[in-house]
Design a protein that fits this description.
The protein is of the alpha/beta class. It is built from 23 helices and 27 strands. The structure holds one RNA strand.
RNA sequence: GGACGGUUGGCUCAAUGGUUAGAGCGUCGCGUUCACAUCGCGGAGGUUAUAGGUUCGAGUCCUAUACCGUCCACCA
């Protein structure tokens, strides 16, 4: 056998699995179905290390379940529309979306996806994902468009969607409305500007503080707390705004914090969520919308028309300073909401958008959350925290190009909404006109230009995946799905939305179990980001160490735990995988002539054989128990420990003389030959075969490639399975449990340890011969092992003195 | 401000309320090179964040505090 080179080996077996359809879902296969709502990776570039990490967690679980005899429904999809994909297409083709015609851009998107998608999917195959890649979907495909539009219409029928003009979260960069979940906090350095305004009819002034002075032309109100002694007397009076000369009334508002700034707040349309809320509390006030959808100010901003926020801020501050209205500036750091996809500060703009009404269902969402089993359990709290904090209905419309269109038109005459028929789906209203007239008799319609937000569609992944199966009976068995795997960053998005959709459409939980992975952090424990330049490439890691090593390393973190990148730890995993290779190589030399058909009396096994087989049973037991609770991290620990410490360091070292018996006979003499015979060697071989095969199987979920190679290389001849991944995890054999022998050998091990220590302290070689050695022990059984001790520690004569 | 997680050798992490708190990496010493671009053996290294409490007994349970991390909300 050769040395271990993972690269070609892994490619070989990946192709083998694909060709032989090892992971194909077969609805007729026996065994309980285990269905997985696999996360469809976003088409936004290459697979990153976080993907490799969390998908490995998932794949370890699925491989284990498969080897427990479950029938795996494990599809694979890609999420290839929406903002991230648009951004990839822009970057890849060096174009700008708003410089292009809508149709041209969409064509370019389709072309780019077609080009890039196979490469992306291959990256998932490269890390050994055992999906059935024939159960494959793309969220922009015709089938998925149809499904997504159908469910939208269904929601409308259930009176769960509505269109409304309202101030809405808006990204001026992407020029689209966004949802609450799309927000990300960012710390910004800014100024708190104190602005002095005259109270009309008096010579008095009041001062308010603001971080957004540029919105002065959009100012609609000033508030003080009704109990604020300083300002009580001014309530109801008006102030004259500087620059705009607008007259604004001072209105009492209990939400005003008397202790912040000057205790006077000015409200604009819209400076932030607090302004929107303030407008709701004071419905008589009319908004002054000064911002266009591209983030530039319009005519209502007077001389500031045409400017963007940052430009207008600079100019207005200058102007305020000139007229002496700027009392002072305080530098502050504060948190602003930015668009999670592009980092731009968000604005509020009043526009017409589509919403899914669900705020009334918060209690049901919480109830559903409790019906699902969470790993780790505490992640549920995050979900609950999010649900409790929901303040807005779900805005699902996006003013973008590459997404699934709304299947609707508006009557040109009466403005009534016209829905596409389900039989017509999928439709793009921009290129298709309704066949029937509006109820008002008119037959001309204006198409809806907006598209669905990606989460609108990806919240339907269980349905999308199940839709790939044609047989209705099987479909029923797949839902609710067994497992939803994902990372913790999208609990508020994908996870929540999927549960919400499932509630709205089916009133059922979408999956029975959720497993949540953490993140990979850089060696300092910080988040990886392209800006920081601390990104680790999984592709390079695979190239250098192999996917099995990367997977073994990824299992170092349990569910919910973050894992710091460490080259040293990767090397540690590499050592274990290499050791597996070498241990197998060594054993296979001795196992050449072994046949498992040859019968052997278990009772006649040597003590160390029984000891090893006993420990194997315990290892399997622990391994299974850990996997039951999704604790693959601990399962990995027990198999690592058993393999390296017990099997290699102890057992193999002890039995070498028994294995070398044949060779030593030929050579005539051997240093540690002892007096072993052929029968003794046979017993070792039986143990090696049994234990090695078990070790391979227990490692198979973690390191699928090398275990397959070793299985095919030797065990294939005597085992019936086509692939190790179609075999079963070994069952505990209670006949091999032997606590008595375990205790005896443990004592022998302790004695060996003492002798090693003694030799080590003397600076002797461990092989140095000891002429005479005495043991005082309470354990009467030790006598049985004096031959073993003599051989292992190279002792000529042992005397054992019993102690009472 | 709210919620959640964490704090154990230099580093990364283990320890169903029960002997002397364990591994791996690193470090120091020794030994092998006949499975192992190595591997093995041995040593040093810990007041378990802090302060109280419950208990025969606390790293583990309770209460506070501090610090770190994550999510959410937010002061104009």
């Amino acid at each position: 056998m050769k040395k271990y080179y993972p690269k070609n080996l892994e490619r070989k077996w990946q192709k083998f699995w694909e060709k032989e359809k090892i992971y194909k879902f077969n609805s007729k296969k026996k065994g309980e179905i285990f269905s997985i709502d696999t996360p469809p990776p976003t088409m936004s570039g290459k697979m990153h290390i976080g993907h490799a990490f969390s998908y490995t967690h998932l794949d370890i679980i699925t491989r284990y379940q498969r080897m427990k005899g479950k029938n795996l429904f494990y599809p694979f999809g890609t999420d290839d529309n929406g903002l991230p994909t648009e951004r990839l297409v822009e970057k890849e083709n060096k174009v700008k979306i708003f410089d292009m015609e809508r149709q041209d851009f969409i064509k370019l998107c389709r072309k780019t996806i077609k080009k890039l998608r196979p490469g992306l999917v291959q990256e998932w195959k490269d890390i050994g994902i055992s999906s059935d890649f024939d159960l494959n979907y793309s969220t922009i495909s015709k089938e998925v468009q149809k499904l997504s539009q159908k469910f939208f219409i269904e929601l409308y029928k259930k009176k769960r969607v509505y269109r409304k003009e309202a101030p809405c979260l808006w990204c001026p960069q992407c020029q689209t409305a966004i949802a609450q979940a799309d927000l990300e906090d960012k710390e910004r350095k800014s100024f708190l500007n104190y602005i002095k305004v005259n109270i009309i009819g008096t010579d008095k002034y009041i001062i308010f503080a603001t971080t957004r002075p540029e919105l002065l032309p959009a100012c609609v109100g000033i508030s003080v707390h009704p109990n604020d002694k300083r300002y009580k007397k001014y309530i109801g009076m008006k102030v004259k705004m500087p620059l705009t000369k607008a007259e604004i009334q001072i209105i009492p508002d209990k939400k005003t914090d008397m202790n912040y700034g000057t205790g006077v707040v000015y409200y604009c349309t819209y400076g932030g969520i607090e302004c929107v809320e303030w407008m709701k509390r004071h419905p008589n006030i009319k908004p002054i919308n000064i911002m266009n959808s591209d983030g530039k100010y319009n005519k209502k901003a007077g001389k500031y028309a045409g400017l963007k926020t940052s430009e207008a801020r600079k100019k207005i501050i200058e102007d305020l300073e000139i007229i002496g209205a700027l009392e002072k500036q305080e530098s502050i750091t504060h948190i602003v909401n930015t668009h999670e996809r592009c980092g731009t500060d968000i604005e509020f703009i009043s526009t017409k958008q589509w919403f899914i009404k669900y705020l009334d269902l918060k209690k049901d969402f919480l109830k559903f959350g409790r019906q699902i089993k969470w790993f780790p359990e505490y992640m549920r709290k995050r979900y609950e925290n999010w649900v409790k904090g929901l303040g807005w209905d779900w805005c699902i419309s996006r003013q973008r190009y590459f997404g699934i269109p709304f299947p609707i038109w508006y009557c040109q005459k009466c403005n009534k909404i016209k829905f596409a028929k389900v039989s017509e789906l999928p439709v793009d209203p921009l290129h298709y006109q309704p066949k029937t007239k509006c109820s008002c008799g008119n037959s001309k319609f204006i198409p809806e230009k907006d598209v669905f937000d990606t989460w609108t569609t990806s919240s339907l992944t269980p349905q999308i995946a199940i839709n790939l199966v044609k047989d209705k009976k099987t479909r029923k068995k797949l839902f609710p799905m067994s497992l939803r795997p994902q990372a913790h960053d999208i609990i508020n998005f994908w996870l929540f939305y999927t549960i919400a959709r499932s509630k709205l459409h089916f009133n059922k939980i979408p999956f029975k179990t959720i497993m949540v992975s953490g993140f990979v952090l850089d060696p300092k424990g910080e988040k990886m980001s392209k800006n920081k330049g601390n990104v680790i490439s999984p592709q390079e890691t695979i190239e250098k160490y192999g996917a099995d090593v990367l997977r073994h390393w990824a299992a170092k973190a349990g569910l919910g735990e973050d894992l710091r990148w460490s080259e040293e730890e990767i090397k540690g995993s590499k050592r274990i995988i290499t050791k597996l290779w070498n241990a197998f190589r060594f054993c296979s030399i001795h196992l050449k002539d072994f046949s498992k058909k040859e019968k052997l009396n278990l009772k006649e096994l040597e003590g160390e054989d029984k000891w090893l087989l006993h420990l194997l049973q315990i290892t399997i037991k622990n391994y299974d128990n850990y996997f039951k609770n999704y604790e693959f991290k601990k399962a990995r620990q027990v198999i690592d420990d058993f393999f390296w410490k017990k099997f290699c360091d102890n057992y193999l070292e002890i039995v070498k003389p028994r294995l070398y018996f044949e060779q030593s006979e030929k050579k005539g003499s051997c240093q540690r030959q002892g007096s072993y015979n052929e029968n003794s060697s046979k017993k070792v071989k039986f143990c090696l075969y049994t234990v090695l095969l078990s070790i391979l199987k227990l490692y198979a979920p973690f390191a699928p490639f090398i275990t397959e190679e070793l299985f095919q290389d030797y065990f294939k001849n005597q085992e019936k399975e086509k692939s190790i991944h179609q075999s079963l995890i070994p069952k505990i054999n209670s006949r091999l449990l032997n606590p008595k022998i375990k205790k005896e050998i443990d004592d022998v091990m302790d004695i060996i340890s003492l002798i090693r220590k003694y030799k080590s302290e003397k600076g002797w070689s461990l092989k140095k011969e000891i002429s005479e050695f005495s043991i005082r022990t309470k354990n009467k059984k030790i006598k049985k092992y004096s031959k073993l001790l003599k051989t292992v520690m190279n002792i000529k004569s042992i005397k054992i003195y019993p102690v009472k």
